[in-house]
Amino acid sequence: MEPIKLFQYNTLGALMAGLFGGSMTIGELLTHGDMGIGTLDSIDGELIVLDGKAYQAKGSGDQPEVVEVSDDVTVPYAAVIFHQAEVIFRQRFEMTDHELEKRIESYYDGENLFRSIKIHGEFARMRVRMIPKTTSDKTFAEVATHQPEYTIDNVTGTIVGIWTPEIFHGVSVAGYHLHFISDDHTFGGHVMDYVIKHGQVEVGAVDQLDQRFPVQDRQYLFAKFNSEQVKKDIEKSE
Ligand SMILES: [Zn+2]
């Protein structure tokens, strides 16, 4: 069997250090996976990849805006996978995100492998945020303290994302990194918390991490990272 590859472009650490410029196109990214998460050039909102299509959720005003992203748009950071469900279960009664996470984790074989996560269902409440577009030399953690947040009640949609083992914190964020998009594509973003009414939960296996580096990005090549600060910032911001 072909190994199931999680493809990650750049690292969350580089993003934390302020490397916000996009350097891989959505067109290329989608050849590596049909489901996933990320952000857009100049950290302009949240990237949601679902069923092979890329969407951008950005916050402005009272409501978030969700638009489909064209192939030529670039990303500074993204993680995508051709998701293959290994465990599928129905959640038949209301649960908080913490309760559902516990249930999901009860199906894991140990805690040292990445997992892909897909949850389609009806949510009593969903709270998301969007990183606001930034081109200045602020750090991600500084920008992240002023993020628009939105809450919606009674919404049907899909959560997509990745669960990362503790030992890979820094490469990615340990634990869940999940993004949401409503079925009608009018609401979405980086998942903060939620209450699910009922839905279908899929947990996918990951055999391999395909970590791509921005080898032509001079800013990345010559950046001086403070790895302890980066790890702290990831904890604070994600
Ligand atoms: Zn996110």
From TrEMBL:
It catalyses: (2S)-2-acetolactate + H(+) = (R)-acetoin + CO2. One of its GO terms (molecular function) is acetolactate decarboxylase activity. Its EC number is 4.1.1.5. It comes from the Bacteria. Pathway: Polyol metabolism; (R,R)-butane-2,3-diol biosynthesis; (R,R)-butane-2,3-diol from pyruvate: step 2/3. InterPro entries: Acetolactate_a_deCO2ase. Pfam families: AAL_decarboxy. The keyword Lyase applies. Keywords: Acetoin biosynthesis, Decarboxylase, Lyase. Belongs to the alpha-acetolactate decarboxylase family. PANTHER family: ALPHA-ACETOLACTATE DECARBOXYLASE. This is Alpha-acetolactate decarboxylase. It comes from Streptococcus caprae. The lineage of its organism: Bacteria, Bacillati, Bacillota, Bacilli, Lactobacillales.
